[in-house]
């Protein structure tokens, strides 16, 4: 309304002598008004588009903030779960370490026990062998002493010397016959094994 009032005010100061000029001014004022209205409409349209863009951007920012809060909450939850898992893993490691140490100690005790047992058995076997060797030596000494006593008695009694000599003469024969029988048995076993 102010744009239309200005030309009317401008025309009121002019006499009607210049009617052509007033018509030109009116045409110019109408064209300016149309151009200004068009520019205003374009500006309003752009403003509306910008408002829509701003609203969409605000919605996008809101969505991003919500997602960020959700991600942060998930991150805090995962951190808490991770700390719990670390604590549990540490406890499990300590438990398995204690169990491993106990098993190693038990294994060492078993090895020590069996090594001591084997050493004791070896010492007992060695002691038995020594006792057996001592007994064998004693028996040899006894047999030698018996032989000496028998020889001494044979010097006193000639009949005993004859009997000892006869047994001594017969004993090699018996040993020879035993050796021959053992050889024949070995040969027969060899022939049987070859036939098989």
Architecture overview:
- The chain is mainly α.
- The chain has one domain (2-152).
- The chain has helices at 2-12, 19-156, 158-195.
Brief overview:
This protein has 3 helices and no strands. It is mainly alpha-helical and 196 residues long.
Rounded to an integer, what's the Rg over CA atoms? 67 Å
Largest sheet: none
Distance between the termini: 141 Å
Which residue ranges are poorly predicted, with pLDDT under 50 across at least 5 consecutive positions? 1-17, 168-175
Strand content: under 5%
Question: What's the overall geometry?
Answer: rod-shaped
Order of helices and strands: HHH
- Helicity level: over 70%
Number of strand elements: 0
Secondary structure tally, helices: 3
Class computed from helices, strands and strand pairing: mainly alpha
Kindly give the count of domains: 1
For the residues shown, what is the average pLDDT?
Answer: 75
Protein name: GK21724
Biased composition (Polar residues): 161-173
Biased composition (Acidic residues): 137-147, 177-196
Organism: Drosophila willistoni
Question: Layout of helices and strands, plus pairs?
Answer:
Blueprint: H1 2-12, H2 19-156, H3 158-195
Helix pairs in contact: 1-2, 2-3
What would the keywords be for this entry?
mainly alpha, rod-shaped, disordered N terminus, GK21724
């Amino acid at each position: 309304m102010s744009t239309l009032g200005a030309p009317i005010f401008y025309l009121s100061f002019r006499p009607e002598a210049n009617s052509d000029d007033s018509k030109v001014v009116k045409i110019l004022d109408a064209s300016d008004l149309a151009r200004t209205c068009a520019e205003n409409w374009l500006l309003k349209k752009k403003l509306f588009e910008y408002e829509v863009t701003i609203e969409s951007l605000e919605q996008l920012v809101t969505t991003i903030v919500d997602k960020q809060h959700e991600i942060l909450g998930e991150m805090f939850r995962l951190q808490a779960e991770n700390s719990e898992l670390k604590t549990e893993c540490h406890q499990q490691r300590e438990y398995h370490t204690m169990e491993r140490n106990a098993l190693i100690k038990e294994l060492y005790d078993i090895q020590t026990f069996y090594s001591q047992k084997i050493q004791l058995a070896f010492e007992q076997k060695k002691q038995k062998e020594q006792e057996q060797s001592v007994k064998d030596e004693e028996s040899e000494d006894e047999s030698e002493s018996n032989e000496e006593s028998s020889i001494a008695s044979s010097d006193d009694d000639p009949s005993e010397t004859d009997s000892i000599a006869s047994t001594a003469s017969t004993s090699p024969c018996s040993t020879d016959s035993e050796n021959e029988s053992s050889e024949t048995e070995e040969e027969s076993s060899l022939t049987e094994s070859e036939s098989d």
